[in-house]
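lol ok so funny story. i was supposed to be doing the assay writeup but got distracted and ended up predicting the structure for this chain instead. priorities right. anyway since i did it might as well share w the group, maybe its usefull for someone
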Amino acid sequence: MSDTTGSLRRKIRSASDLQSVVRTMKALAASSIGQYEKSVRALTDYYRTVELGLGACFRESEPAAVKVERKGQTDRGAIGAVVFGSDQGLVGQFNDVVADYAIQTLAALPGKPQVWAVGERVHARLADAGLPLIGLFAVPNSVQAITPLVGQIQIESEAHRAKGEYARLYVFHNRPQSGALYEPVSQRLLPLDAQWQQGLANVRWPTGTLPEVMGSGTGALRGLIREYLFISLFRACAESLASENGSRLAAMERADKNIDELLENLHGTFHRFRQSGIDEELFDVISGFEALRVEEQ
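and the output, tada:
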């Protein structure tokens, strides 16, 4: 064998150093998952408040208070789409999964898509598939960075929509599942159709006293709709980041297990080499002693 005790010591030291890095990354991924999942849970109460406000507005006015395109119009024309991916490594097929899902879903819809990508890697994957890309956003690295990103997406998407470039807006992202797994999902954000409005109008108010919309009902309605879109995009981004870190955590756990097995093999080989060296030295001593005794005789 070409290995020596010295080379085995170096391999054991290198594997131990690598395991320390892997365990640090595991801890960071686990911590990140917690903060993103907590932010998603925190949105629940906020979304409930916005939902009740929208319901109050729709009860005071006809569902047509929000300009909604007719079905014949919404089924034609361009489609706006936002696809959330990852810019970090060690996430396996994360970007491929959400990109393939977005490609297949958009291909089944009538109309030409216009896509914003969040993350350079998913941007490249969508470009390779031939989808027309009109924007690229950086992936946020913390919960605090999600809000500015969502604001940028809203501003740019509204600017394109105001020009009549598209009538429908979809969002695609990976949603975390149990066991560090995830699945690609999509949501149609626009248009806000009559069925959606009627559903909110039927949401039961939590108290016996019905609310009254103060001031301009149209202004309040537009503000609540902006908050609804903000929450939807924020939740999609947070769930995507939680899925990304869950995938990285699973990869680090596999790497940690593999390094444990490698270290066990290296330690076993090292102890065998060391014992073999000790045996050889003992045999040399015994052989030398026997040789001296024969000479004395």
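Helices lie at 5-60, 71-74, 94-108, 120-128, 146-162, 194-201, 217-296. Confidence is low (pLDDT under 50) at residues 64-73.
back to the writeup now i swear
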